[in-house]
Specification:
Elements: E1 2-11, E2 31-39, E3 42-47, H1 49-55, E4 60-63, E5 69-72, E6 74-76, H2 88-95, H3 100-105, H4 110-118, H5 122-138, E7 141-147, H6 154-168, E8 174-182, H7 193-210, E9 216-220, H8 228-240, E10 244-249, H9 256-263, E11 267-270, H10 276-283, E12 288-291, H11 293-299, H12 306-312, E13 316-318, H13 332-343, H14 347-353, H15 356-361, E14 378-381, H16 387-391, E15 399-401
Parallel strand pairs: 1-4, 1-5, 6-7, 7-8, 8-9, 9-10, 10-11, 11-12, 12-13
Antiparallel strand pairs: 1-2, 2-3, 5-14, 14-15
Helix pairs in contact: 5-6, 6-7, 7-8, 8-9, 10-12
The structure holds N-(iminomethyl)-L-glutamic acid and fe (iii) ion.
The site of fe (iii) ion has 5 residues, from loops.
Length: about 400
């Protein structure tokens, strides 16, 4: 069914912008007083009412009251929102100055979320995930990547991935699952780090493939998580099995980005510790650099060098990392606005990082713009100048129009 929606004070289709490197606001195409013509949930074209009405007389007209700026729905390309329980205790210790090691010794950290998530059944986990998905959707995020990684055994990782699949069938949001069984070597696995990774490769990933639960594999490369050389072997083998690769890289120390670029990962995420060498590697690759300001805010640490990454020519996406430990807030727009002030990112760079550049990190080439044929996942902000959106630092909220 054809639908004509409008009018919009400004429409930003975000088309015709480069995938990599810096963007200026004067490069943004801004269509004033335009309408959007869609057909069965896909965009056909944008233009003035009179012409679209004349050329498509059968289209149903949906008039939007008030003045609005229209953007494509946001894409959050990195979350861990399939979990149970809380880590408020960790956070309280952290803001009292306790170290990561102190927190982990006190029973906190990723392992605590693993135990709390294992205690929930698949239905409960699906419900908890859906609550977070609906909150994100209400805040303008229409495509959401969701990682496993709080199961850390074949059975428990499958439970998480099945919960993500079940949730995706019960929401209007598009969910993209990622297998993060290599988040941490579980405390109850009797063997080396390498033995655990081999176990995942031979006993989990074939089932993930067979059940079509995801085609994406992630690993956390860090002191205390997985070593770079073990990760490289694991990722190469996962890639041979047909998985797209993404990496938790350079969060506290470098090493992850080099592995991500070497295996041709679709994205390298975190990058708070990245230096000139890593920035260059990313800029000269097709691996998307994903900044996660929510983790910097949650941990009270520096942001990824987003400005330098863009200036060097990298493709920069911005994601929330929403998780119970390091990034419990999960407000993507607010985090992107804060990052833009700290790192000096233009409106164009932030909107690109939240839309078509984030789509690239998920290999969803047909999303994140208002081009013909893309899904009509529109968000309308109640203002008449797109610059109000970041200026209000997340307080100006959009309404989703499907
Ligand atoms: O991306 N860095 C590793 N994993 C998550 C944190 C997960 C947790 O603390 O539960 C992250 O920040
Ligand atoms: Fe993460």
């Amino acid at each position: 069914m054809k639908k004509l929606t409008g009018p919009f004070t400004q429409i930003l289709p975000l088309t015709g912008l480069s995938l990599k490197g810096p963007l200026r606001d004067d490069q943004l195409q801004v269509i004033t007083n335009g309408w959007v013509l869609t057909n069965n949930g896909r965009i056909i074209t944008i233009g003035p009412f009179e012409r679209l009405r004349r050329d498509h007389p059968s289209a149903q007209v949906e008039e939007i009251a008030g003045r609005h700026v229209l953007l494509p729905g946001f894409i959050d390309c990195h979350t861990h929102i399939c979990y149970a329980g809380s880590r408020a205790k960790d956070y309280a210790m952290r803001i009292q100055g306790k170290s990561y090691l102190d927190i982990s010794k006190a029973g906190g950290g990723i392992w605590d979320s693993v135990l709390q998530t294992r205690a929930a059944d698949e239905e409960m986990l699906t419900e908890l995930l859906l609550l977070r998905v609906e909150r994100h959707l209400a805040e303008g995020v229409t495509t959401i990547e969701v990682k496993s990684g709080y199961g850390l055994s074949v059975k428990e990782e499958l439970k998480q991935l099945r919960a993500i699949k079940a949730a995706s069938q019960r929401t209007q949001a598009t969910l993209v699952a990622t297998c993060l069984a290599a988040h941490l070597k579980p405390k109850d696995f009797d063997g080396t780090q390498n033995e655990y990774l081999v176990h995942i490769l031979s006993d989990l990933l074939p089932i993930v493939k067979k059940e079509n639960l995801t085609n994406r594999v992630d690993i956390f490369i860090e002191d205390g998580a997985f070593k770079a050389d073990n990760a490289l072997n694991y990722l190469n083998r996962a890639k041979q099995m047909g998985f797209d690769i993404t990496v938790h890289a350079d969060q506290f120390s470098t090493g992850g980005t080099a592995v991500a670029v070497e295996v041709g990962a679709v994205s390298a995420d975190h990058l708070e510790a990245s230096k000139g060498k890593e920035i260059k590697l990313l800029a000269n690759s097709n691996t998307v650099a994903v900044a996660l300001p929510g983790a910097s805010l949650g941990l009270g640490m520096q942001y990824a060098p987003a400005r330098k990454l863009l200036d060097a020519g990298a493709c920069l996406a911005i994601a929330s990392d929403w998780n119970p430990g390091s990034a419990p807030m999960g407000d993507l727009l607010m985090q992107a606005a804060v990052l833009s002030a700290a790192e000096k990112l233009s409106n164009a760079e932030v909107f690109a990082g939240l839309t078509f550049r984030a789509a690239q990190a998920l290999r969803l080439s047909n999303r994140g713009t208002l081009a013909t044929g893309t899904p009509a996942e529109l968000q309308a902000f109640p203002c008449d100048d797109y610059r109000e959106i970041l200026y209000q630092q997340g307080k100006l909220r959009s309404q989703i129009l499907y």
